[in-house]
Amino acid sequence: MALPRITSPHAKGNNRTQQVMLQVLLAAVPGILAVTWLFGIGTLFNLLWASLCALGFEAAILALRKRPVAFFLKDYSVLVTAVLLALALPPYAPWWLTVVATGFAVILGKQLYGGLGQNPFNPAMLGYVVVLVSFPVEMTSWPAPHAVGMLEGLQQILGIANLPDGWAQATALDALKVNKSLTIDELWTQNPAFGRFGGAGSEAVNLAFLAGGLYLLHKRLFTWHAPVGMLAALALMSLLFWNGSGSDSHGSPLFHLLTGATMLGAFFIVTDPVSGATSNLGRLIFGIGVGLLVYVIRAWGGYPDAVAFAVLLMNLAAPTIDYYTRPRTYGHRKPTRGFKLGE
């Protein structure tokens, strides 16, 4: 007799995944509001279009696989992927760019491996990296804060008209990476991309995602190990290689914690239970690895922000981390001193 296959966890019934995803979407609201306040309504356009595209791609692939479409769409996991991807894309990104990113995220990042619970890579970060490498000009066109109106932004998204020259500016991470002559103090006073501690406005955005992440921690939807590991490793690396206000400085710990996608990555991306490590020690190691890679790529790599690349690289390492951090089986003693892991 064929038994039905029901994925874990079972403790709260089949709606457990739906409840978790709804909580994640709720926790992202403060960050969404902060990004919308900073860059305008383009973020909401991104969210709406990415969500529609993701639902469409998910439904089409499920139908091709002859799986129950409504059942799997109701777990809202594809909406979480769409929201994380839309927040990572530049506001007012061309409509076709969002289609390509969500297509890769849903089809190649998730459904190709069998759907939710079987994907080895974070789908949103996979879609983001694909368009970042393929369309670098569009992916680096971030608008200046509070600089774009709704009508102009809509025209940019639809490709009807391009925004005037000067509507976009380099982010704080971009400006710091290419700086070779100005001291940090001079850079801070002369470049409008910098705010009080990090990028202009990005401090508020990161604090908003931090608030959402703390809410998820309070709800115990994930443990503290991965986010704390990432933030601690990033802060430690930036402290070790911080030389004050010199022109070759890579930025202070506070700058790196409150700039770019740091808090979004720490609480909404590295905490992915599918593509990350599974044990508490494994999650801690996974988060530390992400934090180290984020700093290395930011300081010496070819991209100013590195959360997506760092997460995907650590996704590759997650099975090995799980192998060497397997918890003790219930009812068995801890290994003796002469025991070798894996025997």
From TrEMBL:
- Keyword list, A-Z: Cell inner membrane, Cell membrane, Electron transport, Flavoprotein, FMN, Membrane, Phosphoprotein, Translocase, Transmembrane, Transmembrane helix, Transport
DNA repair recorded as keyword: no
Gene Ontology CC terms:
plasma membrane
The source's superkingdom equals Bacteria
Q: How does it sit in the membrane?
A: Multi-pass membrane protein
Q: Where are the transmembrane segments?
A: 20-41, 47-64, 71-89, 197-217, 224-242, 254-274, 281-300, 306-324
InterPro entries (alphabetical): NqrB/RnfD (IPR004338), RnfD_bac (IPR011303)
- GO biological-process terms attached to the record: electron transport chain; transmembrane transport
Query: Where found in the cell?
Result: Cell inner membrane
Q: Which Pfam families match?
A: NQR2_RnfD_RnfE (PF03116)
The reply on keyword Cytoplasm is: no
EC number(s) given by UniProt: 7.-.-.-
Q: What class of enzyme is it?
A: translocase
Q: Which residues carry this modification: FMN phosphoryl threonine?
A: 171
What are the required cofactors? Answer: FMN
Q: How does it assemble?
A: The complex is composed of six subunits: RnfA, RnfB, RnfC, RnfD, RnfE and RnfG.
Q: Cite the PANTHER family for this sequence.
A: ELECTRON TRANSPORT COMPLEX PROTEIN RNFD, ION-TRANSLOCATING OXIDOREDUCTASE COMPLEX SUBUNIT D
Q: Name the family.
A: Belongs to the NqrB/RnfD family.
General function of this protein:
Part of a membrane-bound complex that couples electron transfer with translocation of ions across the membrane.
Question: Can you name this protein?
Answer: Ion-translocating oxidoreductase complex subunit D
Q: What is the lineage of its organism?
A: Bacteria, Pseudomonadati, Pseudomonadota, Gammaproteobacteria, Pseudomonadales
